[in-house]
Amino acid sequence: MAQRTTGHRAAPGHTHPDEVTVLAALAALADPVRLTLVRELAASADWTRSCGSFDVPVGKAALSHHFAVLRGAGLVEQRDEGARRVNRLRRTEFEARFPGLLTLVLRDEPAA
To answer: What global pTM score does this model have?
Structure first.
């Protein structure tokens, strides 16, 4: 899919889940902030969450890095809508590559 540019920033590049190793996927999901982002995206309709709408304890630059890691692992797709960058979890594509992994990651863990 061709990437388009809008405004002052280039549209992000995306890695298809078919190009991702299981270790890269697990590494992306191992970080608590990224896990929160994935879980919140899973609970939201596609393209409804802008990057700034997540309540995570990191600054803007760190949040951009976390989204870059998720894109690189084939978990997230982003597009620009005006000044906002919106996101969707690539659930179907990721599930085809790693059957059952997102189901395990997204289920609630019992308190220890």
So the answer is: 0.86
